[in-house]
Amino acid sequence: MRKLKGFTLTETVFTITLLTLIWLAAAELMVASKILGSVAKHKIQAIYVAERAMEELHRKPFAQITSSTSNVSIDTRGTPDNYTDDLMGTQEVTVTSPFTHYKKVVVTVKWNDRLPLSTKEMSERLASFITSDPQTN
Predict the structure, then answer these.
(1) What's the CA dihedral at 27, 30, 36, 41 to 10 degrees?
(2) Residue 4 resides in a domain
(3) Which of 33, 59, 72, 121 has the most CB atoms around its CB within 10 Å?
(4) The pTM is what?
(5) Contact partners, residue 76, CB within 8 Å, separation at least 6
Protein backbone atom coordinates (compact mmCIF):
# COMPACT_ATOMS: atom_id res chain seq x y z
CA MET A 1 0.00 0.00 0.00
CA ARG A 2 1.19 3.46 -0.87
CA LYS A 3 1.58 5.99 1.97
CA LEU A 4 0.09 9.45 1.30
CA LYS A 5 2.10 12.47 2.30
CA GLY A 6 0.42 15.44 4.05
CA PHE A 7 -1.05 16.56 7.32
CA THR A 8 -3.45 14.54 9.37
CA LEU A 9 -6.76 15.98 10.51
CA THR A 10 -5.47 16.14 14.08
CA GLU A 11 -2.41 18.15 13.06
CA THR A 12 -4.55 20.55 11.02
CA VAL A 13 -7.06 21.14 13.84
CA PHE A 14 -4.24 21.63 16.35
CA THR A 15 -2.49 24.17 14.10
CA ILE A 16 -5.67 26.12 13.42
CA THR A 17 -6.49 26.19 17.16
CA LEU A 18 -2.98 27.39 18.03
CA LEU A 19 -3.03 30.13 15.37
CA THR A 20 -6.49 31.26 16.53
CA LEU A 21 -5.31 31.56 20.13
CA ILE A 22 -2.27 33.57 19.07
CA TRP A 23 -4.45 35.85 16.94
CA LEU A 24 -6.94 36.40 19.81
CA ALA A 25 -4.13 37.25 22.23
CA ALA A 26 -2.69 39.77 19.77
CA ALA A 27 -6.14 41.32 19.22
CA GLU A 28 -6.66 41.65 22.99
CA LEU A 29 -3.27 43.35 23.35
CA MET A 30 -4.20 45.84 20.64
CA VAL A 31 -7.50 46.69 22.37
CA ALA A 32 -5.77 47.06 25.74
CA SER A 33 -3.08 49.32 24.28
CA LYS A 34 -5.72 51.51 22.64
CA ILE A 35 -7.55 51.89 25.97
CA LEU A 36 -4.33 52.70 27.84
CA GLY A 37 -3.36 55.19 25.15
CA SER A 38 -6.72 56.90 25.45
CA VAL A 39 -6.46 57.12 29.25
CA ALA A 40 -2.92 58.53 28.97
CA LYS A 41 -4.11 61.15 26.49
CA HIS A 42 -6.91 62.18 28.85
CA LYS A 43 -4.43 62.49 31.72
CA ILE A 44 -2.16 64.71 29.61
CA GLN A 45 -5.12 66.92 28.71
CA ALA A 46 -6.13 67.13 32.39
CA ILE A 47 -2.58 68.15 33.35
CA TYR A 48 -2.77 70.85 30.67
CA VAL A 49 -6.02 72.15 32.22
CA ALA A 50 -4.39 72.18 35.70
CA GLU A 51 -1.27 73.95 34.38
CA ARG A 52 -3.39 76.61 32.71
CA ALA A 53 -5.27 77.20 35.99
CA MET A 54 -1.99 77.37 37.93
CA GLU A 55 -0.58 79.95 35.49
CA GLU A 56 -3.72 82.08 35.94
CA LEU A 57 -3.32 81.89 39.72
CA HIS A 58 0.34 82.97 39.48
CA ARG A 59 -0.75 86.07 37.54
CA LYS A 60 -3.33 87.12 40.16
CA PRO A 61 -2.52 89.51 42.98
CA PHE A 62 -1.52 87.56 46.09
CA ALA A 63 -4.61 88.58 48.10
CA GLN A 64 -6.96 87.33 45.35
CA ILE A 65 -5.60 83.77 45.33
CA THR A 66 -8.38 81.76 46.99
CA SER A 67 -9.84 78.25 46.94
CA SER A 68 -12.51 77.53 44.34
CA THR A 69 -14.31 74.81 42.41
CA SER A 70 -15.41 75.02 38.79
CA ASN A 71 -16.52 72.81 35.92
CA VAL A 72 -13.99 72.14 33.18
CA SER A 73 -13.99 70.59 29.76
CA ILE A 74 -11.15 68.22 28.84
CA ASP A 75 -10.56 68.19 25.09
CA THR A 76 -9.99 64.52 24.23
CA ARG A 77 -9.56 64.67 20.47
CA GLY A 78 -7.66 67.89 19.87
CA THR A 79 -10.74 69.70 18.56
CA PRO A 80 -11.03 72.85 20.68
CA ASP A 81 -14.08 74.10 18.75
CA ASN A 82 -16.02 70.83 19.15
CA TYR A 83 -17.28 70.26 22.70
CA THR A 84 -19.33 67.15 21.91
CA ASP A 85 -16.32 64.82 22.27
CA ASP A 86 -14.98 66.43 25.46
CA LEU A 87 -14.91 64.89 28.92
CA MET A 88 -16.58 67.07 31.53
CA GLY A 89 -15.06 67.31 34.97
CA THR A 90 -14.32 69.55 37.91
CA GLN A 91 -11.34 71.65 38.84
CA GLU A 92 -10.71 72.18 42.54
CA VAL A 93 -8.28 74.84 43.70
CA THR A 94 -7.21 74.43 47.32
CA VAL A 95 -5.23 77.26 48.89
CA THR A 96 -3.54 77.06 52.29
CA SER A 97 -1.09 79.44 53.97
CA PRO A 98 1.54 77.33 55.73
CA PHE A 99 3.87 80.35 56.20
CA THR A 100 3.62 84.11 56.16
CA HIS A 101 3.81 85.46 52.61
CA TYR A 102 3.42 81.96 51.12
CA LYS A 103 0.39 80.15 49.78
CA LYS A 104 0.37 76.50 48.90
CA VAL A 105 -1.89 76.02 45.87
CA VAL A 106 -3.14 72.59 44.77
CA VAL A 107 -5.12 72.29 41.55
CA THR A 108 -6.98 68.98 41.18
CA VAL A 109 -8.79 68.07 37.96
CA LYS A 110 -11.29 65.20 38.23
CA TRP A 111 -13.29 63.50 35.49
CA ASN A 112 -15.04 60.23 34.70
CA ASP A 113 -13.20 58.34 31.99
CA ARG A 114 -15.40 56.25 29.72
CA LEU A 115 -13.82 52.84 29.39
CA PRO A 116 -15.31 50.08 27.18
CA LEU A 117 -17.16 48.25 29.96
CA SER A 118 -17.22 50.83 32.75
CA THR A 119 -16.61 54.39 33.85
CA LYS A 120 -13.70 55.18 36.14
CA GLU A 121 -13.16 58.33 38.17
CA MET A 122 -9.77 59.80 37.34
CA SER A 123 -7.86 62.78 38.72
CA GLU A 124 -4.64 64.69 38.24
CA ARG A 125 -3.10 67.01 40.82
CA LEU A 126 -0.66 69.88 40.47
CA ALA A 127 0.84 71.76 43.46
CA SER A 128 2.86 74.94 43.77
CA PHE A 129 3.88 77.61 46.27
CA ILE A 130 3.11 81.23 45.50
CA THR A 131 4.87 83.95 47.40
CA SER A 132 4.11 87.62 47.92
CA ASP A 133 6.69 90.33 48.15
CA PRO A 134 6.92 91.04 51.92
CA GLN A 135 8.00 94.69 51.31
CA THR A 136 4.66 95.49 49.61
CA ASN A 137 2.57 94.33 52.63
Answers:
(1) -140
(2) no
(3) 72
(4) 0.74
(5) 38, 41, 42, 45, 85, 86, 87
Range of the domain at 111: 9-136
Contacts 24+ apart (CB under 8 A), 108-114: 108/50, 109/46, 109/47, 109/49, 109/50, 109/72, 109/74, 111/42, 111/46, 111/74, 111/87, 112/87, 113/38, 113/39, 113/42, 113/87, 114/87
1-51: per-residue pLDDT in tens?
667 788 889 999 999 999 999 999 999 999 888 888 888 888 998 999 999
Q: How far apart are the first and last CA of the chain?
A: 108
